[in-house]
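The passage that follows is intended for readers who have already worked through the single-chain material. We present the inputs for a multi-component assembly, then the predicted structure in tokenized form, and finally a short commentary. You are encouraged to pause after the input and sketch how you expect the pieces to fit together before reading on.
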Amino acid sequence: MTQFLALLLNGVSLGALYALIALGFVIIFKSSEVVSFTHGSLLLLGAYSIARFSDSIGFVPAVLAGVALTAVVALLIERLIINRIRGAAVISLAIVTIGVDIIILTEMIRRIGSDILNVPHPWAGESIRIGSTGLSLNRVISLAVAAGLIGLFFLAFKYSSWGVAMRASAEDGEAAALMGIRQGRVSAVAWIVAGVLAAVAALFLVGAPTPGVSPTVYTVALGALPAAILGGLDSTGGALVGGLLIGVAEAMAAGYQDQILFLGRGFGSVIPYVVMLAVLLVRPSGLFGTKELTRV
Amino acid sequence: MSEATATADTGATRVGAPADPPRRRRSVVKPLLLAALLLFLLVFPLYFDEFWLRTGFAVFAAVVGAIGLNLLVGNTGQLSLAHAFFLAVGAVTYTYVSATDEGGLGVTDLAGLGLPPVVGMIAGVLVAALAGLLFSPISARLGGIYLGVASLGLVFIGQHVFNSWTSVTGGFNGRSVPEFQLFGFSFGNDDPELFVMGVPFRESERLWYLGLFIAVGAYLFARNVLRSRPGRAIQTLRDSETAAAVMGVNVQAYKARAFMLSSAYAGLAGVLYALSIGSIAPESFGLLLSVSYLAMIVLGGLGSVAGAALGALFVTALPLLFQQYADALPFVSDAGQGGIAAGEAALYLYGLAIVLVIIFEPAGLAGLARRINSRFGRARRPGGKVTRPPSPPGNPATDPST
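Having made your guess, compare it with the prediction:
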């Protein structure tokens, strides 16, 4: 039972990180109709820059700089590319982000090489014991930070003028534009927010129990895409639920891997996709996504 | 080019006969060019060495796969990142069916059915199609973009399965692919020894013809499908699901079929790919392979069969050429020497190409060709009123000049 509880807590903390990434994914989709495949490489960029900066300027400034850099790159992608082809077919928009993703990812892999960079978290290596299993302090802090950020995000989404503008343009872009809401600005802010969320998630994803910054972080980040899809691409609440669901499922699969060994070693890493496909079989628009209706 | 003289000729005779449309002349030039291209491809192995032939075979494999993916993404409007998975299904099925039981690379014993490789190839196509059909509860119901991410799952789940199912796939180490045979004729280096016009026909020469034959077949099949009733149906579906449904197109059924057809193409491409790389490991069929296929069809022009073939040529041949000529290129060096490795240089280039093509020329290479074509066409015409690009072949009903 204690093992189950520990795994649950582990899963929730991992899920909170997935939710952070998925939230960015969802608001980008809501504001600019873009399914952003750049998230994996943005995350890697965040992790890499934090690790590199912290060699020279210390941990806290490095985190700030890394988060800022990621946000700026996200903003540049929006301004230089997405903004130019606003209104193109959804598939073209998605494919463009894949192109950007290839470029950033290749650059990251080239820079990292086969090393594993270390982010010197002040809380590195410490853990809290619950029964027979431990929970790393990194995950505990990440859970707190993620919860805080997610709360802040939902407040801003509900009450700030940006949040209102954003929801209005997601509801009906044309009407919102006629009301004087600047679509370009809404989508630019969405990309910045997504960049920040991805970089913060990256900070914790590369801490214990993960060894450090290596290109495999990219694959971990991709696990957030199923989270966004299964919650419903246009639902922020769905991203939260989807993230948690996938985090818990992954932690459980890793914890009980001896019992599910017949499914093959390392089944935990494909759990996000299995859960996603299972949900999509029943609900093709995700758990909370709005079903697309067409009026003729 | 003989085209210039031909233009002058018809230009002179056309003075008295304005009713004669220049389009009729173009319809002679195009088959001529295609015939010349085919002839060039047929005699290619007589003049070029093994490196070019191997590259060529890889390109033919990619052409088949790209045409298949284009049917789905370009013509049906369903984004799929699962292409690598279906390639893997084709490759693994071929290997399993055609290989015999063997010791394997590691400690594991590999199973195989030991049937003729032709059966293996057909089985690869069928099993891939079946896998595509099994995915149809998802592929038929999801909108284009949801499917993009959902299909991402297939790649990862597939890799996991292939890694775990050691007796069939060889696991992480992979297994070697049995060479192709057609009714006793081997596509290996000898048996029988073969010389054509003094040139020894070894494995690479023989495979070249196999690839050429299959790629041309795949091209013709796709073109005909698109002109047929189902082809029209899926293109209507892409433009508007509602309109398609109103006109009596069964949306879900056609989405499922398009996905299945595309998977079958991928299966065939997978068999060729396996033959081309000689041994398959699950790692070869990762997300990057899917992305490179997407790059092919985007560069070639979404929805154009010939464009897909062009894109396949570009994306497949580029990294190989970079590797071959790494010394001659600035900035490019062998891996681990400070410069940009050849594979990376190719990645940068096609990442950038995807972005630039979508921003500046969304119709890709095919669109570029069409535009050049229509510009020449306009220059010839007095008054230059016709600004439309030539109507696609097989669609004469919309031809304004008749």
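Commentary: The mean pLDDT of chain A is 85. Strands of chain A lie at 127-130, 133-136. How closely did your sketch match?
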